[in-house]
Amino acid sequence: MKVAKFEADMDALQLMYVDMRLVIEVSLPNNKKLKTTSRLIGYKKDDFILIDYPAGLDSGFGNPFLENANIIVRAITDSGFRDIIAFKTKISAMITRPAKMISLDMPENIVTHKIRETPRLGTEYTVDIACNGKLYPAKMVDFSISGCGLALENQDVNILKDSNITINLSASNSIKAVLGGQVVSVHIDSGAVKVGVKFNQSQLELTKDIYHSIIIEMSMNEALSSK
To answer: What is the C-alpha separation between 221 and 201, in angstroms, rounded?
Structure first.
């Protein structure tokens, strides 16, 4: 995926909406980084932004001291998966009532990026799959909202077209799920087995969230780390 030039755009704040899904990365004073997802609660222009406190023990947000910590926030809008928003700022305060929230300083700069149509994204994720009563390690070599491609070593693989398949994906806190689907193609090529999978329609919102997260990580990591 090609990353085009990022542009500073404080008006991009207007693209953010209540309950918008966010990917956040906090840098603690001990150099430890916490990365997980959150939701936008709201903001006051030129003053502060409020986000949900991450829930769940696996998020790493047990009881760390977060005030004044640096934070990177990434999000993707509903405008046809075409607008990425990202900014760096600091955590100004922790709020416990009426709900647990994190208050962020208003960032000095917001970067945006228009995404070209990318229905299928190239990936290199290690996954575990289950099919026809057997478990296999595999590589997820591409991902789309509707399905994915898998590559396995040419071993005793009992995967047939139209079989039901389960994929355990755990690439990061924001790219983690158990996905179910149906095998739509199986090819043996140069000692490898390539499998095409169509996801269950019932998981559309989940696969859309993962698609968002993959785009955000692919597009923003290099650009933000260089600033």
So the answer is: 30
Amino acid at 118: T
26-64, pLDDT tens digit by residue? 988 777 888 888 899 999 888 999 999 987 645 567 666
Contact predicate 145/162, CB 8 Å: no
Token code pair at residue 4: 């085009």
**The model's pTM:** 0.63
- Enumerate residues 6+ apart whose C-beta is below 8 A from 153: 191, 192, 193
Q: How far apart are CA 60 and CA 33, in angstroms?
A: 9
Q: How many residues does the chain have?
A: 227
Distances (CA, A) of 34 to 59, 143, 210: 7, 25, 19
Provide Rg for the chain, Cα atoms.
Answer: 20
